[in-house]
Amino acid sequence: MKRATPYSLVFLWLKKTSLIAFLSALILCANLLHSAELHSEEKIADKTEPLSDNHLSNIQPTKDIIYLAVAANFKSTLQQLVEAFLLQQPNVNSYQLKIISGSTGALYAQITQGAPFDIFFAADTARPKLLIKNFYAEKATLYNYAYGQLALAFQSNKKNTCDQTINRESTLIEFINDFQSPSKPTLAIANPATAPYGLSANTLISTSQENFSRYRIVKGKNVLHAQQLLLNSNADLAIISAAQAQHSAMKNISYCLLNPSLYPAIEQAMVVIAQDKRTASQQQLLNEFFSFIKQEKAKSIITLNGYLINDN
After folding, report:
1. Does residue 161 lie in a domain region?
2. Residue 81 belongs to a domain with what CATH number?
3. Residues 68, 59: contact at Cβ < 8 Å?
4. Are 73 and 137 members of one domain?
5. Tens digits of per-residue pLDDT, 164-187?
6. Which pLDDT value is given to residue 26?
């Protein structure tokens, strides 16, 4: 065998050194790229989504506009109330009353984070009272505008029917036990953590946990989302508000009201949000609309949409 000369040994050493340097450079580049990707992901993760259904980044306080934050169940009813109010106020334009909807819990969180809302229509009384306690809302403006009702909605067919109103737990249990579905039925409700309608629905289910055990329970982010799951055939049934069940979009959906005695009361309250920079014109418009909600015209619209009213 031919022995390696000193020159060839040097050449081999140089080749090996170059290869090591090359590999080291590759590893360094890979680490830099990975670090850049992680940094980019951290930036993306920092951009949290708004808590309500609507992106609030474009909302800017304007002297002619008041913002109405409303729980998802009451959105369509509030739209009707705004339309009726505008008929009584010819000098007010429709653009001056902006509606932003979402779950009660999400909107509450937005208010505590400084969202420029003027009136909050919640689906409970707890969060408006919390806003008052923590000086985010005006105590004197707390007003219980409605009591919500639950409805059990499902695709219309001859196999599944129910009474117009289910008044007894035994009747409800009989219906859910007899409900026919090609596979394990899916029941949609609103998220109990943020939506009062979801909380009442979840309590109703919990009282008959064994009977609901064959159901797959899915939770929408709010009661409108639960309704959408049913309309998109991603759920076989949904527990939603009576107002939603009566909506024109539900023409192919059957429903039965659930007697309020079967679940915790859904007492809905509104409150005026404290804003330091509200203009005189904004305050006047706010006062006029707040006063309108207490009038008989507004109460009749609310009851026609499936809500109960406390006349006391």
Report:
1. yes
2. 3.40.190.10
3. no
4. yes
5. 999 999 999 999 999 988 788 999
6. 46
Q: One-letter amino acid identity for 261?
A: S
Contact in structure between 305 and 146 (CB atoms under 8 Å): no
Chain mean pLDDT for the chain: 84
- Residue 191, token pair as written in the block: 């998220």
Tokens of 123: 């689906």
Q: Is the dihedral of CA 67, 70, 74, 76 positive or negative?
A: positive
Structure tokens at 42: 């951290």
pLDDT at 192: 96
Give how many domains the chain has, as a whole number. Answer: 2
- pLDDT given at position 310: 79
- Give the pLDDT confidence score for residue 218 in this predicted structure: 97
Which residues in the chain land under pLDDT 70? 1-63, 311-312
Both 91 and 120 in one domain: the answer is yes
Cα separation, 158 vs 164, whole angstroms = 15
Residues 6+ apart with CB under 8 A from 51: 102, 105, 106, 107, 109, 110
* 144 closest CA partner among 265, 53, 286: 265
* Placement of tokens 């009660």 in the chain: 104
Neighbour count for residue 63 (Cβ, 10 Å): 10
Q: Which amino acid is at 9?
A: L
User: pTM for this one?
Assistant: 0.77
Q: In the prediction, which pLDDT does 49 show? A: 30
CB count in 10 Å sphere of residue 274: 16
Q: By residue range, what is the domain housing residue 170?
A: 148-262
Rounded distance between C-alpha atoms, residue 75 and residue 87, angstroms:
19
